[in-house]
Design a protein that fits this description.
By secondary structure, the protein is an alpha/beta fold. The chain is built from five helices and four strands. It has a four-stranded mixed sheet.
């Protein structure tokens, strides 16, 4: 592979690779990729860093050979959103044939419709540039965390810091 893209990785909930490891206590820090010879771009949403505890297993940008990495964190975005969780798959004949019908089962009346595809697409484009031209992506600002590692939030509940979008900084609804 020429490069790797991780979108919405949940380190705290990674399933063991080998069946004999089920039931063993695991350290979520063991699930973090620490060596990568090819460019590796990671995009995390606010929910991976919050309720999924990925902020407890920090990953840092690096340009060191053998550890080429960039991390972007998107405030306001959730692990799954309405367009990606339900709408994208609703007419997929393979899913319909299998009897799987994507649906929302959250605690709120409606799923988050935050359009995280824009920053995701930008990060994917940066990975291609890094592979093809050797132009490493810029270092993105990280989410602001308190002493316990939880995201500091604004008046709307969106994490402060991270890769800002107009949907967070100038909301219309």
């Amino acid at each position: 592979f020429d490069g790797y893209f991780s979108a919405g990785g949940v380190y705290s909930m990674t399933v063991p690779m080998n069946q004999q490891e089920y039931g063993w206590p695991k350290n979520s820090a063991d699930t973090v990729v620490r060596r990568m010879d090819q460019p590796y771009v990671i995009v995390q949403t606010q929910s991976e860093n919050g309720s999924f505890c990925s902020n407890r297993v920090p990953r840092f940008d690096s340009d060191v050979p053998g550890n080429l990495c960039r991390l972007s964190e998107i405030p306001g975005a959730t692990h799954d959103n309405l367009p990606g969780l339900v709408e994208y798959y609703k007419n997929d004949p393979k899913l319909n044939d299998s009897g799987i019908h994507p649906s929302y089962h959250g605690v709120h009346d409606y799923p988050n419709d935050f359009p995280y595809d824009y920053p995701m697409n930008a990060a994917f484009h940066q990975l291609f540039r890094w592979i093809e031209d050797g132009a490493a992506p810029i270092h993105a600002p990280r989410l602001e965390l308190d002493a316990k590692g939880d995201a500091l939030t604004d008046a709307f509940g969106n994490a402060r810091g991270g890769v800002r979008t107009a949907f967070v900084d100038v909301p219309t609804c």
